[in-house]
Design a protein that fits this description.
about 300 residues; D-Maltodextrin-Binding Protein, domain 2; Alpha-Beta Plaits; seven-stranded mixed beta sheet; flat; binds adenosine-5'-triphosphate; binds zinc ion
Amino acid sequence: MDELRLKLAIQKSGRLTEPSLDLLMRCGLKISRGKDQLMAYGENMPLDVLFVRDDDIPDLVQEDVCDLGLVGLNVLEEKRLELASRGHPARFQQVRTLDFGRCRLSLAVPEGASFEGPRTLQGKRIATTYPYLLEKYLRERDVSAEIVTLSGAVEIAPRLGRADLICDLVSTGSTLQANHLREVETVLESHAVLIRTPLDLPPLKDEWVERLLMRIDGVQQVRESKYIMLHAPRSALTEIRKLLPGSESPTIIPLEGSPDRVAIHAVCRENVFWETLESLKKAGASALLVLPVEKMLA
Ligand code: ATP
Ligand code: ZN
């Protein structure tokens, strides 16, 4: 492999795959996924993508096989604690928080079981695939419980009599519901993150890391952003500016032939909802137009 090409690890097949690839495409990366299903070659950037199990991503960066990785904070923090327990410092740096892969690591008890705070956990058996994060949670609360480490299908452990409750990833809660479990406490709020090696990279690679970071920032900023245009009476300017969600300094343009009305153009860094448009109209605005923003560079 070319030493001057960046190597980025992403999940091969799972919940993070599609949003990770989408982010990279939006950053302008074109990849060709040849016969080799494990790796894709960046055609327009010196960056190659490795497709692996999400659990292996921190290790690949830790061991300098990859320079970068896109992974869930849950997997990353579990790995960090596991390394620490063996006396190894983590050799990955979290460089960006990403706006996908949102979920939480939570404790859930069987429906009908009572829960009155962490003390309830004393002496219980808790099934999880995140033993290190759970151990830290219990230790910080001075609770001793038995951690039953499983490699999957945690949600059925209580029914099988293998545990009294579970500690597992939740997003909508529908899996818990289907298994008659009730979420009671959050152990970790999670989302995807971009990690990099702490090693100094050759200047060319380093430059591409910086460019990628800048593009990721741009992509994440525009995702929620809207460009809004409207006409308004000059007298209502103050009120209208207050109504524009998350906009800094709008552009105000005189309207030919209507001295008391102006056109306002603004970038709103939050989504613009119907309610906002209705309030703007009430304040005297007309000819309202909301457009998606494609790219932004501060
Ligand atoms: P692999 O085969 O790669 O080990 P997996 O079964 O461990 O896959 P997935 O279920 O695809 O992994 O989840 C990958 C990551 O997505 C999780 O580690 C977490 O960061 C995030 N995640 C988990 N559950 C959800 C969810 N319900 N919604 C969004 N993201 C989630
Ligand atoms: Zn996994």
